[in-house]
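Thread amino acids onto this structure.
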């Protein structure tokens, strides 16, 4: 059993900032990657950012220079600092942990947190 709990979403004006957090609990051997995805109304879920346990990061072109992903492996937590938010960033944001459990690699997802950016 692995559970991911997200927090930090909300309503902000364009140009504002939000910080999302996601913490995993349960039994697993190792974190392979942590990441954030988002899904806007009528759109498919898309990758926002990922970070490996070694600290390597990857960002969608649309958020480069504005968002920063970070992680705390000891606390099984991933963060997404979002600055200079735009209305196009409005979406439900989901955290993702790719984990090793019982010698197998599996993906786990948070419940989603709403981010709304007003003009």
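Threaded sequence (119 positions):
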């Amino acid at each position: 059993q692995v559970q991911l709990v997200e927090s930090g979403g909300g309503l902000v004006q364009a140009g504002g900032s939000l910080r999302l957090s996601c913490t995993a609990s349960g039994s697993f051997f190792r974190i392979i990657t942590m990441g954030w995805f988002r899904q806007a109304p009528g759109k498919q879920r898309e990758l926002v950012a990922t970070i490996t346990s070694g600290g390597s990061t990857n960002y969608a072109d649309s958020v480069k220079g504005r968002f920063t992903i970070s992680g705390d492996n000891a606390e099984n937590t991933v963060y997404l600092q979002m600055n200079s938010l735009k209305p196009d960033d409005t979406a439900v944001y989901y955290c993702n942990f790719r984990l090793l459990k019982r010698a197998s690699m599996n993906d786990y997802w948070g419940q989603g947190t709403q981010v709304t950016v007003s003009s």
